[in-house]
Specification:
- The complex is a heterodimer of chains A (255) and B (405).
- Chain A has a three-stranded mixed sheet.
- Chain A is globular and about 45 Å long.
- Helix content of chain A is 20%, strand content 18%.
- Chain A contains seven helices and eleven strands.
- By secondary structure, chain B is an all-alpha fold.
- Chain B has one domain (15-225, 232-391): Formate dehydrogenase/DMSO reductase fold, CATH 1.20.1630.10.
- In chain B, 69% of the residues lie in helices and 1% in strands.
- Chain B contains 15 helices and one strand, in the order H-H-H-H-H-H-H-H-H-H-H-H-E-H-H-H.
- In chain B, helix 4 packs antiparallel against helix 6 (130-153) and helix 7 (161-184) crosses helix 8 (197-223).
- The radius of gyration of chain B is 22 Å and the shape is globular.
- The relative contact order of chain B is 0.18.
- Classes of the chains: A alpha+beta (255), B mainly alpha (405).
- Chains A and B meet through strand 4, helix 3, helix 4 and strand 8 of A and helix 5, helix 6 and strand 1 of B.
- Strand 4 of chain A pairs antiparallel with strand 1 (343-347) of chain B.
Chain lengths: 255, 405
């Protein structure tokens, strides 16, 4: 555990007061912080491995039939939904960055639902197998596809244990500037990297909280004071296909 | 006395030659058209999807690539293992290896989502990717086999052909290990994820490659009215029988290993019993028609001596090989990923269900186009260069056998 009583240095305090970054921050005494605020990384600053972004999903809080996280991702990143421009593709061919999965335990009949997306592995099989290095993992743990050097071989899709990736089967229109997509290349959940880099939260997590479910917690897995780390320490969390030893950034409770 | 071995270009003036050339050329053009359609519209016109990501083009491409390394075996038996009987076939063996590999690579590249970025694939390398290694292995194979052929065909370079043959032999083993590992190293999917796939692909290459070689040899000598003795033909077909039996052995070990591990029972049940088209293809086409029937034909005391029967057996082995790759590649993807053991899984993205796949005409045309391009290259090459001995009569290749007759 980090020493939480360590006073913040003056420049940092100064910055925070200027930025007015008070959300999610509880000060019990001057200079003593229980949680760290999300701070935007300046655009010219290199991404470092000081952080490891992750999401903790509590399946007990994930409401059956609720697809707020999926809809939010669709709207944010411009795939699927009402305005889906993948008109020609079949259901099997249309992209899905995040999906709700229903699990029924065979022995007990107990039903659980959870959102499933790119698990942002520490050692991602997609990046291992990618011949050109288009699939890569950022220093802060976000797994992305460089659309400029993806040749569309789909080997990453063969290698992903979570079926988290989609190939684009036709020309697309009306793309979001922060989420470029292209025919003949592969894409997947970016952990809303454009939001995260500005100190924000992925759209799915935000939507889940707006719906009042609070089933998803986003944060820095390396920061002992972050909400996600504290919850993981308290309740634990599981990785899907932990047997593969991929050390996923997305963790689950209740499965 | 042994007669001199003379290589000569085929005449290539008959109507049959032009019909063959035209037919293969037409297929290649159709494949080009299919590619343009797929790449212009996008892959939605194919049967491939986000569930079955590799389809018919990959089945053909991998068959051709695996067969390519196997086709080189005939030359290796002559050079590396020093069997004089095989030496006259070395040139055709090298040529066929190059042609099949090019045919396979063309299919693989033209199916890419962005084939226009081929230069990216050649300039950006992720050395942890077995796929990237395969790009190097394929290019190396082409270069080495061309040098090997040159040393075989250029009298001044003849002294060096043996070391070149050794390099080519070792390279081809590494190459097929790489091709098998494309699947063997996929930990996520239960039907793959087995180191055995690397040696299994090598033995598959022996079988597919030799079947293609014998078929091409029979056709070339029959159509050009050149003598082809029984000594060489029977030796080749008997060797093919050994390879087919070896593939069966590997297939048995593969399934028995999977069956021993309880966690793999469901995928085995799928392929061997409940998999519908995959089960039928496995038992009827791969095992029965593609392995057992040709084995019986090859070793039958009378049928095994008939040339049409040997040709039929080779064709069956090739069809069985394509079925084998279809079952492995497509069947392996059709079976759902097991992310949540002990749960019934459902979602909007086809989790927990067997994925369906029906190949489109475009994919099949592209695949057949690869075969056509390979055969077209061979046909043109034997017309312009001295690949084929004028005679492979027993008295030329094996005077000892000729005397015994």
């Amino acid at each position: 555990m980090k020493d939480t009583s360590k006073p913040a240095d003056p420049s940092r305090r100064d910055f925070m007061s200027k930025a007015g970054a008070t959300a999610g921050m509880a000060a019990v005494a001057p200079g003593v912080l229980l949680t760290s605020p999300a701070v935007a990384r300046p655009a010219d600053e290199k991404v470092t491995s000081d952080k490891r972004w992750g999401i903790l999903i509590d399946t007990a809080k994930c409401a059956s039939g609720c697809t707020a996280c999926v809809s939010a991702c669709e709207t944010e990143n411009g795939w699927g939904g009402e305005s889906n421009t993948e008109k020609q593709s079949s259901d099997e061919q249309r992209a899905q960055w995040i999906r709700k999965v229903q699990l029924k335990e065979k022995a007990t009949g107990h039903v659980t639902t959870l959102p499933l997306m790119c698990q942002h592995c520490e050692t991602p099989p997609c990046a291992d197998v990618c011949p050109t290095g288009a699939s890569f993992r950022r220093a802060d743990g976000i797994v992305l596809v460089d659309k400029h050097i993806c040749i569309g071989c789909r080997y990453c899709m063969m290698a992903c244990p979570y079926k988290a990736r989609s190939f684009i089967h036709e020309d697309l229109k009306d793309q979001k500037p922060w989420a470029p997509r292209g025919k003949g290349t592969v894409e997947s959940c970016t952990l809303c990297v454009h939001r995260v880099d500005e100190g924000g939260t992925p759209a799915c997590v935000e939507a889940c909280s707006s719906e009042g479910h609070y089933a998803m917690v986003f944060g820095d897995l390396y920061d002992d004071n972050s909400e996600i780390s504290r919850q993981l320490e308290q309740h634990g969390g599981k990785q899907i296909r932990a047997d593969l030893g991929l050390n996923t950034g997305v963790r689950y409770r209740g499965i | 006395m042994k007669l001199a071995l003379n290589y000569r270009e085929i005449e290539g003036k008959s109507t049959g030659f032009w019909v063959l050339l035209g037919g293969l050329g037409l297929l290649a053009l159709l494949a080009l058209g299919a590619t343009l359609h797929m790449e212009h519209s996008g892959h939605y016109v194919t049967g491939m999807s986000n569930q079955i990501v590799w389809g018919m083009p990959h089945v053909f491409a991998i068959f051709l690539i695996v067969a390519a390394s196997g086709a080189l075996n005939v030359a290796s038996v002559g050079t590396v293992f020093g069997k004089p009987l095989y030496k006259p076939l070395g040139r055709l063996s090298g040529l066929l290896a190059i042609a099949l590999l090019l045919g396979g690579l063309i299919v693989l590249v033209l199916d890419l989502g962005r084939p226009d970025r081929l230069i990216v694939a050649m300039t950006y390398y992720n050395f942890k990717s077995i796929f990237a290694w395969n790009i190097i292995l394929y290019n190396g194979f082409l270069a080495i086999t061309i040098v090997y052929l040159w040393m075989m065909m250029e009298r001044k370079m003849n002294t060096y052909y043996k070391p070149a043959g050794y390099v080519a032999f070792v390279w081809r083993l590494i190459l097929t290990t790489g091709t098998g590992s494309i699947f063997g190293w996929l930990v996520a999917r239960e039907a793959y994820d087995m180191a055995l796939l690397a040696p299994m692909f090598i033995i598959m290459s022996f079988s597919y490659g030799l079947a293609v070689f014998i078929l091409v040899l029979l056709a070339a000598y029959h159509w050009t009215d050149r003598p082809l003795g029984n000594a060489i033909l029977y030796r080749l077909k008997n060797l093919l029988g050994v390879f087919v039996a070896s593939v069966l052995y590997f297939v048995a070990v593969y399934h028995l290993s999977n069956l021993y591990a309880t966690e793999h029972h469901s995928v085995e049940r799928f392929i061997l019993m409940d998999g519908g088209v995959y089960t039928k293809l496995f038992w009827i086409v791969q095992i029965l028609l593609g392995s057992l029937v040709p084995l019986a034909m090859i070793y039958h005391p009378t049928i095994g001596k008939s040339r049409p029967a040997i040709a039929t057996a080779c064709a069956l082995i090739i069809i069985g090989g394509i079925a084998q790759l279809y079952v492995l590649l497509i069947g392996g993807q059709a079976f759902p990923l097991d992310m949540f053991p002990g749960y019934e899984v459902s979602s909007s993205f086809f989790d927990g269900v067997v994925n369906s796949y029906s190949p489109s005409i475009w994919e099949i045309t592209l695949g057949l186009g690869g075969v056509a391009i390979a055969l077209l290259l061979v046909t043109i090459a034997v017309r312009v260069l001295r690949f084929l001995p004028e005679s492979l009569d027993d008295s030329v290749v094996d005077p000892h056998a000729a005397k015994a007759d």
